[in-house]
Input
Amino acid sequence: MDNRDSSDSRNLLERVLSLFAKVRGGEGVTVLLLALDVFLLLLAYYIIKPVREALILAGGGAEVKSYAAAGQAILLLGAVPVYAMLAGRFPRRRLINIVTLFFVGCLGVFYILAQFRVPLGVVFYLWVGIFNLMVIAQFWSFANDLYTQEAGKRLFAIVAFGASAGAVFGSFIAGRLIDPLGVYQLLLLAAAMLILSLFITNIVDSRERHRAEELALTRAKEVEEPIGKGNAYRLVFGNKYLLMIALLMLFLNWVNTTGEYILGRTVKHAAEKEVDTPAVQKLSEGKYEEELAAGALGKISEDEFRKRWKEDYTGKYIGKFYADFFSVVNLLGLLIQLFLVSRILKYLGVRIALLVLPVIALGGYAVLAFYPLLGIVRWAKTAENSTDYSLQNTVRQVLFLPTTREEKYKAKQAIDTFFVRAGDVLSAGLVFVGTSLLAFSTKHFALVNIVLVLVWLVLAVLIGRENRRLTASNEE
Output
């Protein structure tokens, strides 16, 4: 990237963007396109996410959801080496095109299967977890590849704002369309968003290749070549800095997923109580009489009708709850991203920024340990998730700026996928032991999370020190 520092070279777009982060001349169009690119990716994900929650919780419950998350780590053991193989064979543009179009095709397959009422809850949950991690990790590898350390620290706050905005609008759209369109039609809408994002990725790649040719011919040649032949896991375990990041992501996700289990169990219980209330039962009776009179029931018995109606009502209740929950989380994350992230990184630095989320999580679970109520669970997770999706997400991407190009694509993919899902495996083990053997309540799960957060804090301190050393070394 061009690192010209003269404010006189900035156009109107760059001056406007500089209200949120320091944007230099020639940087405005690319950073805005990248923000739009990740906006569409997160828009697609948050259109899909309420569908995932409705299918897994209505069909199996919070425990099944927790155990299914562990299955994602097993699948990623094979998916990460396949991705590394593709990265070793194709240049970055073709790599991104192949991976993204694969996930678009999967959405089409899920939609077709749904028309035949094939049970999709667990399979779709597994797929969404892999899709979200691999596609988003791939985008940030691409962004890391475009920017220098100095430029990335300045501009990632704007790019990540696109992610926060996409999450907000995706939740809003899903909440408004799930009733009129139905659950499965949202899959086709998400597929369209992925295709649009891929189109923008190709525009950015072409634009930056031309700029690279103007600035450094060797750099232009580099992006046309495959991204090394190294093993993704070997890269992680062979580098102390990368291994610490991997462990941090493992503990972060262990805490977060256990918190998601607490929330999911609470929401499922609330939905079951709601569907058994007299008002809702009366609504069910009225709907049965209406469809019976219209001759729309066919050979379905009254008991079967009520069972299906109860499942549909529970699914919609959960879907709407999560759509609203995600909307609040993502709106708060958007505001944090817009007004706080760049300033925290600029004035406090990476070392302090790494500590913000674990401190918030520690406070939230400490409150839950004493007051395990639905409202407390919801707002503790709101504070945790909104900070995770904004400040923590940006800091996480900044951590990879001082790494090599091969580490950005391969090691980062392993860390952002397998090690994140390894946290899910540990959380699933905790849920199994806690529910099957120890009869844990919400309070007990919160207490375990407090211990895990303390380990997370130690890792954050160590990573901050190593990042400072690497950054200073690379700038010499």
